[in-house]
Model the fold of this input.
Amino acid sequence: MKILVPVKRVVDYNVKIRVKPDQTGVDLANVKMSMNPFCEIAVEEAVRLQEAGTATEIIVVSVGPAQAQETIRTALAMGADRGILVKTDDELEPLGIAKVLKAVVEAESPDLVILGKQAIDGDNNQTGQMLSALLGWSQGTFASELGIDGDKINVTREIDGGLQSVKLAMPAIITTDLRLNEPRYASLPNIMKAKKKPIDEKELAEYGVDAAPRLEIVKVAEPAEREAGVKVETVGELVDKLKNEAGVL
Amino acid sequence: MNTLLIAEHNNETLADATVKAVTAAAQMGGECHVLVAGSGCAAVADAAAKLDGVAKVLLADDAQYEKQLAEPMAALVVSMADGYATIASPASTNGKNFMPRIAALLDCSQISDITAVIDANTFERPIYAGNAIQTVKVNEAKKTVTIRATAFQAAGDGGSAGVEAVGAADNPGLSEFVNEELTKSDRPELTSAKVVVSGGRGMQSGENFPMLEKVADKLGAAVGASRAAVDAGFVPNDYQVGQTGKVVAPELYIAVGISGAIQHLAGMKDSKVIVAINKDEEAPIFQVADYGLVADLFTAVPELEEELGKAGL
Done:
């Protein structure tokens, strides 16, 4: 079974981002970038399926700037076999990315595509579902457990209020939630080995897909600041203030 | 042009998130039509018809929609999408699941998790876990939108819209529901509770959460947790408040033993009143708290329960 894992290079999740003074976006100059945490979970799941003998090949793809090659290398060091970088300096929207990924799927014919449920920059939570729609495949979003069952896949999903299990026809799209697994750290020997694994560099234009941005970003602003309140000395004082000052009891 | 709002419900009752999403949908111009897709869900359609701002309720009552699986839901909505400029739903896990599928099938863009409607085509939404607010405009004839319900007031119930039945669409047959395990609790649901009491890594173990539950029961509150507490296995994932969990905006949020990581703040900073109890006076949670108590939670929480009792709760 062949697995395709799309990954995204984003601002590291520990970085406190700053909005640009002209409100055109978020300042990404000299900011630490990493693989999106949900994408790491997707790579880890694919590697575990390979270790279990279920998957035979893992291909990692990223659509983004030249530096996204580092993100692909990280996935190769975790255990993926080869990479594809679709180069573009435009910031594509989820539908555009899904159209590019559809073209990659058609060229590579994977049985399963595993993606992160959302990227922690745009917080859109759209790409996997859109790719599934464009391909006419089934979708198992927000997965916390996967089990291959012949030509079907059982997916346990994190839903509001609990868990839901669905059985999906393959090929399928899976998007990962936090508790699917805990991604490994790549070992030094594996990082060295990853340097020799192939990454196929493509230009976006080669896919002949219209992925041009369609939305107009009017502005990006700082959220309303919340002012720090007061410190109370005792629990009694706290309850008194909640009751008589804030009026919430 | 009209808006089609897809209702969140459990086939018996209309979710609070839908009641709030109607308020957002009514601000998008044109008529607001509500689609209730489910199985044996006529009572839900009747409830939706009573909401202020709803012009018409469309009822698709068929076994294939019982669990609102993405593949049949998308096929249904696409079959009835003509005449709507906007297709919307609450940003629940159901909405997040099927809405982008609908958008791609209609070849239109989706605006996720909106927190304000500026005009029919312009919306505000949080990005980077709420550390920035993006204003985005759609310049095309169709779009899908998911609505962060906690950002909107509930619609009133003085309406009297008609209910029309709509036929089922062909089921693509790609997916099959197997089962679900819903957390059983007598407490209110996290995202609609008026008071939320959350515990963090400082709770040290899941065995200490009953201490918070006692306080929660006094306040009629839901119990939540930080991602750190969930990752440490203290409580299940559906307790998680934060960027990657649930977003809450109750009247009162009590954070116990929570340091206040960015990702947690993203899920609760719109609460009306925030209380923080933490023994580390440098914890970032104090920067957003209206009332901070620097104390050992293992003495402060039982004391809080007692004081609430004295206050007549």
Chain A has six helices and 13 strands. Chain A touches chain B through 78 residues (CB under 8 Å). The CA atoms of residues 227 and 246 of chain A lie 15 Å apart. The helical segments of chain A are 37-51, 68-78, 94-108, 127-135, 188-194, 235-244.
